[in-house]
Prior knowledge:
Elements: E1 5-8, H1 10-19, H2 28-40, E2 45-46, E3 57-64, E4 67-75, E5 79-87
Amino acid sequence: MMCSQITPTHHFEDRFYITRKISALISYDDLIKFIKSCYIKNQLIEDRKHSGLMGPRYYVEIPIGNKKITTIVEKTPDCLTLITVWPE
């Protein structure tokens, strides 16, 4: 079933904009486009260590130059929820 939307948690927004400043590396729109593309292509990687509250959790690794950004998403019946994000 296709998710109708991607929704960030407050925790994700804090990491993306304030504490980890991921927004300096990639725009929110580009991050969402990348995640949607991975979802459509069935390229989300299951997070077998951490189960979600509303559904399974997955991680997405986004290459940015010689770095990558890892984003954790949770699949719920209605959407993908952005849980957290960090640079590597």
